[in-house]
Automatic annotation (TrEMBL):
Belongs to the ABC transporter superfamily. Coiled coil: none annotated. Keywords: ATP-binding, Nucleotide-binding, Transport. One of its GO terms (molecular function) is ATP binding. This is ABC transporter ATP-binding protein. Residues 7-230 form the ABC transporter domain. The keyword Transport applies. It comes from the Bacteria. The chain holds residues 2 to 232 of 298 of the full protein.
Length: 231
């Protein structure tokens, strides 16, 4: 079975002074997966996302995107919410997306597609300022999807949302996976990863404990040793 690799990390380490934020981390993200990077606060998730987005430099190790050494052209294939878009509060959802579409050279068909996908089509003419936090997060995802990325990076995508917003975002992420967009998401919530992800890598204090299919990893008895209760 040949499966394209979206992202592969090989022995990546990162220090901040005396703090070893990542220690020889290696794992592979297969195409079409919803890949959870799971770990408690301070385990190195955000640092890892920063490195693969090239905003932080690793002290050691390498990584590849789509089997290639990172270069500028690959950036177009990666969508991310790491830099939150600056939406105009007094503009409608669709107007905000039209601005991004103009920058990225996308058309009305793309705007409609991402509004449908995020279930914001009905609310497209509402002002951004009237949106709930969950809707704002969905619009941010819609905005990132406008570029038609092959992979979407999310850092704690349900943080700060109410239960309805959390459920909506989780469903959206599952749908993205089903439609073939690979998703890489950081989370400190074990139940979120169980509900949403097909694959997981578990980090603790910068060390990769295990990675693989969610079903296999989370069924493992070692989860008790790993300290699943902390997650
Ligand atoms: P959180 O969910 O709280 O953001 P995390 O799993 O994303 O946690 P990181 O933010 O990557 O973890 O942090 C990993 C470790 O590196 C922590 O001990 C943190 O205090 C430390 N750290 C992160 N950024 C810096 C920095 N800029 N300078 C110094 N130490 C840092």
């Amino acid at each position: 079975e040949q499966q394209q690799q979206i992202l592969s990390l090989d022995q990546v380490s990162k220090r901040y002074g005396r703090i070893q934020a990542l220690n020889n981390v290696s794992f592979t993200v297969p195409a079409g997966s919803v890949f959870g990077v799971l770990g408690p606060n301070g385990s190195g998730k955000t640092t890892l996302l920063g490195i693969i987005m090239d905003v932080l430099k690793a002290n050691a190790g390498t990584y590849t995107w789509f089997g290639q050494t990172p270069h500028e052209d690959l950036r177009k294939r990666i969508g991310s919410l790491l830099e939150t878009p600056n939406f105009y509060h007094y503009y409608s959802a669709i107007r905000n997306l039209q601005i991004t579409a103009a920058v990225k050279g996308r058309g009305e068909d793309d705007i409609e597609r991402v509004l449908q996908l995020t279930e914001l089509w009905e609310r497209r003419d509402s002002r951004f300022s009237t949106f709930s936090l969950g809707m704002k997060q969905r619009l941010a995802i819609a905005n990132a999807l406008l570029g038609r990325p092959e992979v979407l990076l999310l850092d704690e995508p349900t943080n700060g949302l109410d239960p309805a917003g959390i459920a909506e975002i989780r469903e959206l992420i599952r749908n993205l996976g089903q439609q073939g967009t690979t998703v890489i998401m950081a989370s400190h919530l074990l139940d979120e990863v169980e509900k949403v992800c097909s694959h997981v890598a578990i980090l603790k204090k910068g060390v990769l404990l295990t990675s693989g299919h969610v079903d296999e990893v989370l069924a493992n008895e070692d989860m008790i040793e790993i300290g699943a209760a902390d997650l």
